[in-house]
Structure formats: structure tokens, C-alpha cells
Amino acid sequence: MVSLEAKSTYLAPLLESPMPQFFVGILYEQSDLLPPKLQMADSNSLACNMLHFVRCAEEAQCRELYQQLQERKPNKESEWIYNDYLVFSLVCAVKRFALPSTWVRQLLTLRISQDEEKQRLNVTLGNILAGNLNSREDYHQVSLVYQMLTGEQVPDEIRLNKMFKFLWRRPFPFFTSPFLNLISLKALELAFNSKGLLNPEQFFATEHFTGRFLRRTQRLAAFVVTVPVVALVLVLAVATVCYPDNGWVKLGLALTSAFGVDVIGSFSGLRDKLQTPVTTAIRRAFGYSPPPANPPLYT
After folding, report:
1. Residue 295 lies in a domain
2. Does some domain include residue 253?
3. How many separate domains does the chain show?
4. Cα 47 from Cα 49, distance rounded (Å)
5. Which residues are listed as membrane-spanning (predicted)?
6. End-to-end distance of the chain based on CA atoms, in angstroms?
């Protein structure tokens, strides 16, 4: 399809069904992409066709399909309203072709969820409908990709920077939602292109390097800690046998016992206690700054 899809191992797990594959084709402007046959009972079919109408600026067909959908009277148990691809495509269609938005707003109010990702996605889609693309509560990558698909306006530089920093610090997959992951990968590419930074494949190479770096510094710390601990244990063991009544020997035994080490039996307690701070020190020495455990979304 596109080079990013062909070369990146990140996209592969997300493309196990036709809907994500078609969505990637839309995002990366696949030239020969055609939607599946329209089936009103299939929410993925509706999403694909709606996205195709938005991409190709086919207003008349989009308006006709939207009018048919407006006749539906969904409730909180209607499964199709939880299809993120479909609701996103409806929001894009409403904004691009100035369609009535009341019905889509009602869908968003019905999409009740305890999941924070889904809650924030709903807030983001609602803000897009309202024309507010820079809200603090948004997933800005969603509004950024919306802007790309509809050609609405140039992205806000401040929000672009915050989105970039937020995603850069998170491990992949960024979210549990495949939809948000695909959106985020495209948003990163747009940020790269906008700022003249690394291309996406270089980004993924950097991500692989980060993983290798963390593993190697952990092994280095284990080596650095093990050698002196083994030497300490051997020295104390020999001293205990040769000088059992020596005050310094007794002090050494007391200190190692305080670390949870049985000099005669093992040294794993002291080694394990030292490995974490030594690993942290080595990484800091090389300039690595770990991301926060629970990074804020957008502030």
C-alpha cells in the first residue's frame, strides 16, 4: 500500500481486518482505494463509504447517505454507535459538507463509557463539531487528522508540539484503541513533515534503539554490581574463616546482613538492591530521561 505500512512492524498488528486497512489507505492517500459495497446494516461499510465521500469531495452522495442514517433512532444499546471509525467519518462529513450536526451530537451523548480513552475521544469529536480544535481536553491527533482529511485549516503550532511530545514519550501501542493508534501514527507523520524532523521510519528506528539501550544498560548495571558484590562476599567469607573475632569483620557481616545478605549462602539480596539505582545512574550518565509513569494528556 504505502511505504510506511509495508516497512513498519508497528502497523502490522493493527491491520488484521478490512476496516483498519481501508482507514490506513484513506490516511495515506492510496490512489487506487475503493470502498466496499455499501451495506446499511454494516457499520464498517458505512464508515468506509463515508470516508471515501469525504476524501473525494463527493458531496451529493455523502449527503444522501447521511440523510438515510438520520432516520435511525439509536439508543445506548445500539452497537453501531460505538464504532469509532464510523462516528469519526460522520463528524468529518458533517463539517466538510456543512450537514446538520444535531443527530451526530446525539450519537456522542449516547456513547457512554467508563473508559478514559473513549471519554476523551467523545470530547474531542464534540469539540470538532463545535469548531474548537485546540481544547485542553482533546486528543489533538484526532483533530489534526480531521483537518488533513477535510482541508479545513492549518494546525495550531502549540498544540502540534504538545501532541508530538506526548506521543513521543509513550511506548507503542500508544492506546488500547486501534483507531487511536492509527490516528496517532498519521498525526506523528504530519508533525514530522510540518517540523522537518525525522521521517516516520527513522522514528520507529529510534524507538527500537530505545528498547535496546534500556536492555543493555540493565545488563551493564547487573555486571557492574555483581563483580564488586561477589568480591565483597568472597573477602568476607575468607575473613570470617581466618579472623572470626576481628571487630572489622564482625562489622562487615552486620552491614551485609542489614542488606539482607547471607554471606555464607548467597549475595543476591545486596545485588538486587543495588542494581536498580546503578541502572538509573548509568542511564542518566548517558543523558536518558525516563518518561513519567502517568504522563498528563494535554495541558
Report:
1. no
2. yes
3. 2
4. 6
5. 220-241, 247-267
6. 36
Residues 145 and 229 in one domain: no
Judgement on whether residues 7 and 102 belong to the same structural domain of the protein: yes
C-alpha cell read off for 132: 474548537
Domain extent, residue 278, equals 206-285
Find the mean pLDDT for residues 26-41.
91
Q: CB-based burial of residue 85 (10 Å sphere; 0-12 exposed, 13-18 middle, 19+ buried)?
A: buried
pLDDT, mean over the chain:
78
Q: Give the cell for residue 9.
A: 512492524
Cα angle vertex 17, ends 144, 43, to 5°? 70
Residue 223 DSSP label: H
If DSSP codes are grouped into helix, strand and coil, which group holds residue 36? coil
Count how many Cα atoms sit within 13 Å of the Cα of residue 210 in the half-sphere of its side chain: 16
* CA angle centred on 138, ends 35 and 44, rounded to 5°: 20
Helix (H, G, I), strand (E, B) or coil at 113: coil
pLDDT digit string, tens, across residues 53-72? 999 999 999 999 999 999 99
Express as a percent the part of the chain with pLDDT over 90: 38
